[in-house]
Amino acid sequence: MPKIGMEEPRRRALIDATIHEVGARGGMDVTVGQIARRAGMSTALAHHYFGNKERILLAAMRHILSTFGALVREELARVETPMQRLNAILDASMDRRHFEPETVAAWLAFYVQAQQSPEARRLLRVYALRLHSNLLHELKQLTDPARAARMAQALSALIDGFYIRHALQDQAPDRDDIIDILRDYTCRQLTETGQP
Amino acid sequence: MPKIGMEEPRRRALIDATIHEVGARGGMDVTVGQIARRAGMSTALAHHYFGNKERILLAAMRHILSTFGALVREELARVETPMQRLNAILDASMDRRHFEPETVAAWLAFYVQAQQSPEARRLLRVYALRLHSNLLHELKQLTDPARAARMAQALSALIDGFYIRHALQDQAPDRDDIIDILRDYTCRQLTETGQP
DNA sequence: CGTTTTTAATTGACTAGTCAATCAACAAAA
DNA sequence: TTTTGTTGATTGACTAGTCAATTAAAAACG
Predict the structure, then answer these.
(1) Of A195 and B56, which is predicted with more confidence?
(2) What range defines the domain where residue A38 resides?
(3) Which of A43, A62, A46 is nearest to A106 (CA)?
(4) How far is CA A5 from CA A1, A2, A50, B15, B17, in A?
(5) CA–CA gap between residue B79 and residue B90 (Å, rounded)
(6) Does residue B1 fall inside a structural domain?
(7) Domain count, chain A
(8) Which stretch of DSSP H or E encloses residue B76?
(9) Among residues A76, A49, A45, A75, which one has the least CA distance to residue A60?
(10) Residue B27's closest chain A neighbor by CA?
(11) A133 vs B140: CA distance, rounded Å
């Protein structure tokens, strides 16, 4: 059975299985055995490729974050004006793919693991910082620096907040309502009223 | 040594120890042994009082949520006008006590556990619903129903979002900045501009 | 009041089970 | 034959939950 060049597909399968298993079980308390079985191999092989459990989990986390980042970059490449680019970031952040139950559960679980694992924490920080600086870059071209900074913070929090609420409430607003709220927020903030 | 009337302080100590232990370890992967040791008793006694591990965790969760609810109610009782009451809810939601690292970590961990445990899910739903309806009740007196609903959704998401961001980023805005952002949001939304 | 019985509090030792990680061994490709 | 892929079996550490036994307070009794 041993064919050569198995390393890449095996790693891929393990990462995929990890995300699905974490999503299905709804937490990080997955066993290497469960992951390996879903990926169609023995636990020993999983250890062979990743060394230990934590590295499997981190690889899965890295995969989710880089998928997210790639999607944002892709949407961003399509448009020109700051306003379009801002909307592109918001759209990409609310992409349907992020709302698949497994992904949401995995995301949430990673947030918790970040409290224990410095490397996981670092990864999430990178994601948060990139989102923030992406937003800020566009907003600075649309309003004054102070308001831009505040809006970037608020939009980041709104995105994370809606995401986490979506994870466990059925009456949470759906994707389209969320985008409406985000657009309404930016629109109102950028319309100059009384305050300087 | 056995004194009578120990049940109540023991339960209290176990709940307290659970929150601290979950907060310190940054997840739900705490052992009954760790909790019991921190509470100054044997694992058997912890089982004696709560039956099993899940009930210990749920009791701790219930305690955190009821503390939160009591605080909101307390602040709410102090003021009269809808606008004051709205601000009271926001202030209470952002109270310093909720930002103690242990509480934040425990809160986050409970969110994850809610994916696995129906009872935990139910408890969090109650919290979310109460926050939402509290906000909605005041907002309906300040603006039209559609906008009130949208604002309640947005404010809930902002609160949860800032909370979760605070849990793992040092550059996240602090309590006062967050309150500024929340107030700025409500202020702008309630100021009638162009759109009906 | 003194004695006996009941009851709550408490634990150490034990059971039965899980899981991450290791290892020795085997199969095929190069 | 060396390298790469692969596994079953095993180990060692840890965990939830149980249980019988112990202690002391309280209550019942004479």
Answers:
(1) B56
(2) 7-190
(3) A62
(4) 12, 9, 16, 52, 51
(5) 13
(6) no
(7) 1
(8) helix B53-77
(9) A49
(10) A112
(11) 35
